[in-house]
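2024-03-11 09:14:02 INFO receiving multi-entity request
2024-03-11 09:14:02 INFO entity count = two
2024-03-11 09:14:03 INFO echoing inputs for audit
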Amino acid sequence: MKINTTNITKTATLGTSRAGGSILDLPKELLQIVAENESDTEDAFLKSIALVFAINEAGFNGVEIKGEFPVCPNETKPIAPAEITHYFKKYLQESDAVLVSYLLTNFRKRGIIVPGFLVSDLMYFNQRNKIDPQLLSDVEGETGKWLRSINPDWANKSSISDSDENIWETGSPAIRKQWFKSLLKNDPNTARLILSESFSAENADMREFLVDALSQKINSDDQPFFESCLSDRSIKVRNAAYRALCFIPGSDISKACLNYLKKAIQIDEQRVMLIKKKKVIHFAFPGKPEKILLDAGVEETSNIKQLTDAVFIAGQIIGLTNPELISQTLGISEYELIQLLLSHENVDFLAPFAAMSATHFKNKKWAKALIESEKVLISSEMISFFSVYEKKELAQKLARSMQINELIDQFTDGEYTVIDPGVSEIIFNQLLEHPYNVDSPKIRELSLYLPVSITGMLESYKTEFTKLENHFWIKRLDEMLDIINLKKQLNSNNLLN
Amino acid sequence: MSDYYARKNDCRLGIKSFSLLFRIVKFNSYFYPDTMSFSLDEITRLAPDEASVKAGEKLAVVSNWSDTGRSENALWGNCKGSGKLPYRVMVDLGNIAFKCSCPSRKFPCKHGLSILILQLRNTSEFTQNPNPEDVQEWLDKRNSRAEKKESSESKSVDPEAKAKRIESREEKVRNGIEELQLWLKDLVRNGIVSIPQNRFQFNANIISRMVDAQAGGLANRLRQFNEIDFSQQSWPEELMYQASSLYLLSETYVNRNVLDEERHSDLEQWIGWNITKEEVLKTDAITGNWMVLSCQQSEMDRLTMEKIWMYSEQDKRFAQLLQFFAPGQIMETHYLANTTIEADVHFYPGKQNLRAIPSALRKTSSGCTVISGFSGITLALDAKTAYRINQPFGNEFPVVFSAVSVVRHNQKWMLKDSDNIGLELINPELEIMKALSITGGKPTSIFGCIHRTTFMILGIWFNSIYYSF
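2024-03-11 09:21:47 INFO inference complete, emitting structure
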């Protein structure tokens, strides 16, 4: 039995002075009891509704549920052991993104997953801290996938969400550029879709940015898009499109570049000290470059003192051409060619273009030679395709040329591979020189990569800074030592093996 | 479970018959067995803040500690500090109390937490020894303090003065109730339509009046009016439920002469007439293992209230402990959910009263075994109706369901039994997700409280492991 409470609500809202106080829905016997004991209208009303609520509550037998609710499939991967789960739970509760990420990566390496009872906490954590989607997918298990299907806030985002769309629609140019770059990295298909839909409506500056950004992730399917940009009303966009097309082998412009360099570069042999011979590079002027090269932004006339037009034009075209193809065309090795360029009298002009080419075409031989020559500023893109071992060999040079944050990024691979002790010292010394350029989370993350052997050095610095009462560094070193000790402890207890 | 209430009544009779044979037992004088050590999670729950745990973890390295040891009821050690002398740290494992010679105002301090973490990490460093002199002295002092407190509580009072005090208080309550009834009648006479605009102030004066009238229970019920979600369409019904229930309570007090002794006692507690601990301890104790199923803290008028639900498998009954702390006050006893303690539990007088006080806590171990509960929601609702006959103003009814699952139905989260009967869940979304995360939507044993026609999950057993909310 359930008594309708609509009348109660109506009367209570208006007040008994206006709506009266009788509740007709109450059974007669109860109405009589109330009437016998009532002192006034309000007394009767309050007693009656108390009875109505009591009757309704006593008569409630639950709600009939129809239909099936999906159940989570059983886990197929092993679950993280309880010992490590304690730590994981603690870091989740403390919202310690650095250590959560470290443990999750460790779980992935070991092929284990987060225990079910912590998956919802992990999902909430992800809402605030944005874990790498692939990493999350690898460790969330069936429970995570199932919870995503239930909770729309946690659903997989195969396409951009409403809030993301808002950024693209209403964000400032800087934010929009940043957002597009990240989308291109994480979801290139959606990025290409957005680009094709909104490209024509953007201003010249943005169109140039979009073309440049796409050229970083170029593939042969993009050729028609770049070709369509060659007729853009803005010269900046057209130049950007030409530059992009240079990276597509077999495109008209890449052929034109190669043809020009074939005619412009001459390799001769010179006799040295009568018995030895060495190769030298000369730049000739084979005539005006093809129109397509000029359209791509290649300038004809040198605007640099004592630099001939021949070197000026060839240098620009080297920047647009694949080093491997130039070497093949000229019949010398890539190593020889870069050494010849570096020994040329106009090396200061030629080196940046050679670096541009090495970076775009991911040519290690050229990149290494240029770094060792110290003729160019090293960018992170230039060594992005180097292995950790190769970077280690260049650590000292990288430290001299790069910002401290960039330097740290080179040696933190996301997999927590321990950094070589020598490199660790180089990084730490850079850190000492630029202490305010790195924030606390970055230092804590770096600490997870440092070898245990560095503890002694850090301890001695801590003693030194304690004497100097340098609280900034005492705190930083404490953070670093804490993390290294924690890692040591986890490893010594075999929790991470 | 079905004979739970019948047993409870039998126990009540027992309590009455043996009420003269009570023994005064030292409150909280229990100890942990040799095997007892705290998990990291439990130590974290004992800490006053996150920073203390972090600092404690950092200190928990063997090289920082000297002269460490443990006995069956204490843990001690010297911790290297910034001064010349190390800090002396002691932990009373019986009462979970800490003593440290450091100047920290936090309680427990990082050294107290650190020694527990150190013991967890390096059990071999803590060999069993008799208590050192200073540790024994501290423990003795604590015990004598507790005994002193009990003896001062048990001092006989002048019966004439007591009768006068009772009479004066009854008059205050009577006057307060008259005003409350008038206020409630005015509320329904004038209508409640404008209350959401004045939701925090509309009952402020009458709450103060009930506090002055020494009717704390009524004041608390009035405070609950402010917890109604006035953004929901159902707020008028919820407000009227609470108002009418309060009115009925006040009427019960007016007509209290017709009530029997037990109901009279219940009524006094609902009004806010405190029963002294000493009086409760006079009742017969229920001795045995009690599983601590839930410990939840809430803020109440500048006080922190901790509500603890315990269950005795042996006696098939629940007990509710309430602890109140003023800001900065140190907890006399720490309870940790998902542990089992052996204790004497004394129930407050009344009909099916669940509120209790433990004494002589003797042993504790981690974990709560699965409780066999109601197989269906309808059976539990019937039991709740029976309970409400004896406790018409009790808001919560603790139950364990044996095989229920969390499901989504008509845009609401529900608990569903094998007969496809559901009960709406009132946990916040975060807890619902936690429940789903633990169970994967599969049927399992769930502990919680029925509130009218809804249910609040407080703990879940899954694969024989208990997860407290």
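2024-03-11 09:21:48 INFO post-check: The longest helix of chain B spans residues 159-190.
2024-03-11 09:21:48 INFO post-check: Residues 4-22+282-366 of chain B form one domain.
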